Amino acid sequence: MDMSKQKIVHPNRDANFVTGAYSDGVIAGGFLFVSGQASVDFKTSKFVLGTIEEETQRTLDNIQAILGAAGVSLDDVVKTTVHLKDIAEFDRFNAVYATYFTGVRPARTTVQSVLAEGIRVEIDCIAKLP
Asked: Which residues form the signal peptide (predicted)?
C-alpha cells in the first residue's frame, strides 16, 4: 500500500498567507482530504464576514478551488463536516449548500461550534480521486 502524501494548495493563496499548521488539502490513499475552509479571500489573506448565505457561498467556492487544484470537483465529494456558529441558521445555510451538490449528495455531519475570527461557517470534506 502506498502511504505517500501530496499537498494541495488553494490556487489563489498568497504565499505570505499563513493560516496554521495544516495543508489546504492532502491527497492520500485515493482520497483528497480538505481542511476546514471558511469565508476567506485567499488573494488578500483576509476573512470576509457576512450573512450565513454569503459565508457559505465563499466557503464552498474555496473548497471548489482546492478540489479543482487536485483535479476533482464537488461531484467527487463523499463526506463533509459542517460547523455552524449558530445552528438556528441551519435552514439558511442548507439552502445555499444544496445548490452546490447535485445527484448523489455527500454524507454530512453538521454541528454547532465556537468558531474563530467571527466566522459563521467552516466546512471540511473528503473527495474520492478518479
From this structure: none
